[in-house]
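Let's practice the habit of predicting before peeking. Look at the sequence and jot down your guess about where helices and strands might fall. Then scroll down.
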Amino acid sequence: MQNQTCSGNEDNFPFGAVLAPGLCAQIYRKTQDLVNELSRPRSLYISKAKEVFCLERAGYYEEWANLTGYVMVYDDEGKDGTAETATVIARKQRLDHGLAVTESHVYASSSEGVFRWPYTTGQRAEVDNSTMEVVVKDIPTALDQLHPTRTIIFDDTEEILYVARGSEQNLDENDFFARIRRYNLTELPEGGFPWEDGEIVATGV
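Done guessing? Here is the structure:
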């Protein structure tokens, strides 16, 4: 952001990052001793209530099977642009990319599916995994895939969920994998929607 009185310190940014002249930034959250916080951060999401969430991915390729992904929510208690605390809201093996928050749930994806946990604004306790629901299942995947991440986003009603599966390799022979499908969650069946039941809204992406 542009700021005439920048309190950020360019020397503290990781990986030698340097800001362009006239820009200001500061570190929002440093690695803390909370599960594997910020060892593999993949997605950030700011809810309508201005809460900041982060998905810590389980792993990459062969690591998935034995590692757990986490969804965390951060709190800037001092209102100074730095998050002092983080709370794990949900966890599941193989979570790796997609993240969305509605007024009633937190959603996250693995390469094989989309899942949700009950959540209300201000909640600062981990959700019991017995309340987790499968939203979309059986997304086609393979161990040798180059693109294991599934992006998720809602429409303005928070009733229609869009899921982008993405291509299998950098260059696929057809668009079987590279499709975006949508699902009406007001009609969510027990056990979740099979991937193929979603309406195709885009191909080749």
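How did you do? The two ends are 31 Å apart (CA to CA).
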